[in-house]
Amino acid sequence: MLEVSGITTRYGSISAVRRVSLHVGANEIVGLIGPNGAGKTTLLNTVAGLLRPAEGEVRLEGRPVTGHSPDRILKAGLSLVPERRRLFAEMTVVENLRVGGVTVPADERAERLDEMVELFPVLKDKWSTAAGLLSGGEAQQLAIARALMSNPRILLMDEPSLGLAPVLVDFVFELVGRLRAEGRTMLVVEQNATRLLEVADRAYVLRTGEIAAEGAASDLLGRDDLFDTFVGAARDSQSERR
Fold this sequence. Notes:
37% of the residues lie in helices and 25% in strands. By secondary structure, the chain is α/β, with parallel strands linked by helices. A six-stranded mixed sheet has the order 6-7-8-3-9-10, with helices on both faces. Strands 2-1-4-5 form a four-stranded antiparallel sheet, covered by helices on one side.
């Protein structure tokens, strides 16, 4: 579904990501974990077209999309839930959702809106509320719903539980499980590595811009040495940070 081959992304002379390769198969949940500054967000933004790589290739369902604009990549079937939501604060909930569904045929948009209300009932009560007035949990649900409005074939999520209360963290991971049951394909960056590995099929550990480890999520979850050395946090931490 998604192939990343030898990607290097630079900020000026600094290589934030160096020769990274990974793949995500259809209907898989793949995790991307690692310490603060490892390059996880840079990699997702490169895949989504927000950053242009200096080297390497990104392929979506076998088609090269390297360096394509974000709108072209969205139309190709890849959608991103960005770090810290990046909602249009002055627009209402429904207006944000309609922006997310801009690539959906007009006759399907109402159906997609209904599906988002079913997945995120809290949004119905906030339909006409400006996104900037939402609570953190409400805003995160809107950010995920907005990304799902395009009915993407692969969903990228960047820190979906960051800054949320424990009950909302539970909701996020329950949602990931429900999306998996629907057959969604996902690549997820998450500050709570333990919770992510509990729901993912496979995972990659990114450290100083390079892949430091990879494997089945269940195998990585049992490696205390990996958490201490690479992830930079205790395995049972509930407040891991990038």
